[in-house]
Design goal:
Layout: H1 4-8, H2 20-29, H3 32-36, E1 45-50, E2 58-59, E3 64-66, E4 76-80, E5 89-95, E6 109-118, E7 126-128, E8 130-131, E9 151-159, H4 181-188, E10 195-201
Parallel strand pairs: 3-10
Antiparallel strand pairs: 1-2, 1-4, 4-7, 5-6, 5-9, 6-8, 9-10
Length: about 210
């Protein structure tokens, strides 16, 4: 269990970063690799864009805190870097802080899991990921409970293993709580993530 002081240290951090090593440092500073038990040394940048019902979409900066009402719609994902390849890729989003960062006894919460993401033009250095099949676990809007500190919502991209479509551990009926991305990844052969991003979301104001 983390102390309140250790949790609060990452809450004010917002990183405007344009290198994988900078994103890695942001993840390390937010204690994410330790808390989700995954090695994180990304090869690419992950741009996460959250569409808005009105107004311009929000392009997430690493570690940015967003109001909950800005996270209702499923995000889009773009890989940035050289030699991205055509895919397929797996994208996952998890919350390791549920119900509160001080007592995450139902974490992780799975907010999204989808495979068969591909790129349109692998020679480009910024590739929008397109999901060619329905998600395994559809987007769930962040909903930290009243009274909680802000939660971390972590977006990860993996190279998709050949047998991913045959996995039976998660489906649309599987509870989203008590998920473990590292155990799931080990079971299905995901390996370590190739890119990531994260945001902070606090409860709605009282």
């Amino acid at each position: 269990m983390r102390t309140l002081l250790s949790i609060l240290t990452f809450l004010p951090l917002v990183f405007t970063l344009d290198t994988p090593s900078g994103v890695k440092q942001a993840f390390d500073d937010a204690n994410i690799p330790t808390d989700i038990a995954l090695e994180f040394d990304p090869t690419f940048l992950l741009q996460v864009v959250l569409p808005q019902s009105t107004g311009a979409p929000i392009t997430l900066e690493v570690g940015e805190q967003l109001p909950r009402n800005a996270t209702a719609n499923p995000p889009t994902f773009t890989l940035i870097g050289e030699n991205i390849g055509a895919g397929p890729f797996v994208v996952a989003t998890v919350d390791p802080d549920a119900p509160t960062p001080q007592d995450p006894n139902i974490a992780q919460v799975r907010h999204f899991l989808g495979g068969n993401f591909i790129t349109g033009s692998p020679a480009c250095e910024a590739e929008l990921l397109v999901n060619t099949t329905p998600a395994v676990s559809e987007w769930q809007q962040p909903t930290p409970p009243a009274g909680s500190d802000a939660h971390r919502y972590i977006f990860l991209v993996f190279n998709q293993p050949d047998a991913f479509n045959d996995q039976t551990l998660v489906n649309t009926a599987t509870p989203i709580t008590l998920f473990n991305i590292s155990a799931f990844g080990e079971a299905v052969g995901l390996g370590n993530p190739i890119a990531g991003n994260f945001m902070l979301v606090a409860p709605d104001p009282a």
